[in-house]
Task: structure prediction
Amino acid sequence: MNEYDSDKMKDLLSKEMDFVGTNIKEEADVLIVNTCSIREKAQEKVFSLLGKWRKLKKINPDIVIGVAGCVASQESDAISSRAPYVDMVIGPQTIHRLPKIYKESLKSKKTIVDVEFPLIEKFDNLPVVSESKFSEMVTIMEGCSKYCSYCVVPYTRGTEVSRPLDDILLEINSLVDNGAKEIILLGQNVNAYFYEDNKGNIVNFGLLLFYIARNKGIKRIRYTTSHPNNFDAQTYLAYEKLPQLVSHLHLPIQSGSDRILAAMKRGYTVLEYKSVIRKLKKARPSMTFSSDFIVGFPGETEEDFMKTIDLIKEVEFDQSYSFIYSKRPGTPAASLHDEVSDSEKKLRLKFLQETINTLSKSRSKSIVGENVEILVEGKSSKYNDMVTGRTTNNKIINIPGKDNLVGELLNIQVTELNNKSLKGEILIK
Ligand code: SAH
Ligand code: SF4
Result:
């Protein structure tokens, strides 16, 4: 989501204000840091970066410094007092106002702060198409109304708001006309998508997938992130009927212990989560899954943690975003007593990640020798004369080739697993 917002800010500055991007910060007229406040560490990094930028401003007082995103939204007062040399503070829902905020900041000596939640206005005011890309992200909804006890998102991004169906379809059509082959639907909880048109017709997430798949230029549809409580019947049907929809899903669970899930206020039990997985696998038996985990939530015992490990083995998650619980001011969990030591939390996280890596490796091993389809994404970062592509199950595979293959769907044979990376060869058609 932040990558999407950063891209849009770049587009706004170049299209509406004729700025040109640079990798040399000393050359810049505007420096903006787009921020995340999901964990404390991410937030602290912002202030240390701002300290470095302050020195640049001493050399060139005309540099305009901005803080955008969720730290801006949550910490606007702290930024103005801790870092008064910051000129612009822009919340995640007001990035479209950047040109206006920039002009105001040139006139004013004070920090200009705009961290409102003006609902859908943002999307009506962002440039749609930038340079041609084979893979494009499209935001379909924003915000979150779930209020898990540990999480800042509902406070920083606001409650769930879905974009009108026609706006989404028009944006996708122009992206496909501009060369996009893969569409990644974005939102804090994409499958909470809900739209009612002026005739009273209701569109949920599953129906939205069917509407999007009507554009035959789209070869792949991915989405992130979905919530276990929002799966509708049409989404299960979409996995039966729409081959464009990839066979891999990132479905956050957070913990494998019902006691901890209840304390987190996730709104489901492990059994209910597994029932979603079962229905998805019934619709598409080849489905694989990845998940988010929080380790060391206040009160998590060794027994609770081992339940998470058991679940990981049962579902065979092969990737994760896993972190140690970070106390966020203003959230209900911040007042919970936390008796697990830091060293114990680190050990648990390490063990969890090793368990998932082992599962991932054995899945990678199991596809060596198989023929699979990949969408080529770009140059390999590891091998000079190779490009990398992604399978429908989200496995990255390196194949011999050059940039001209980017955006191509290719049938390949997986030939070897070298440490963690898979290699393959194009099959002669
Ligand atoms: N809406 C999605 C996830 C969005 S937040 C969902 O809940 O399904 C992305 C991830 O950040 C979460 O899944 C969670 O694992 C992690 N996260 C959120 N708050 C956190 C905190 N206080 N400490 C550690 N991790 C956190
Ligand atoms: Fe945060 Fe996700 Fe829970 Fe919403 S559903 S409060 S974004 S963890």
Remarks:
- The mean pLDDT is 93.
